[in-house]
Amino acid sequence: MGAEEEQKGKQANEQPRSHPITETEFLTWKRRKDADASARKAEAARRRAEDIAAGTVRMNGREMLLHEPWVFDNSQY
């Protein structure tokens, strides 16, 4: 049984694609994928900014430097 299953698996892997993808189809898919990723990232950044403004999350160092630069003012010392 094991040898028969291996043989079937090899045959399935060796079969050529019935519909090869064209360069245009790939580029369309890639643009859509990149746009979706960009939209998700922008939405996450917008929600993070809203949460920071509301004070519901802690800021990291970069965010604190951008929003409250007076915290890093060493002229007093």
Automatic annotation (TrEMBL):
- Chain residue ranges for the region called Disordered: 1-34
Residue ranges constituting the ZC3H15/TMA46 family C-terminal domain according to the UniProt record: 17-73
| UniProt biased composition (Basic and acidic residues) | 1-22
Highest rank taxon of the organism: Eukaryota
Record's protein name:
ZC3H15/TMA46 family C-terminal domain-containing protein
UniProt source species:
Hevea brasiliensis
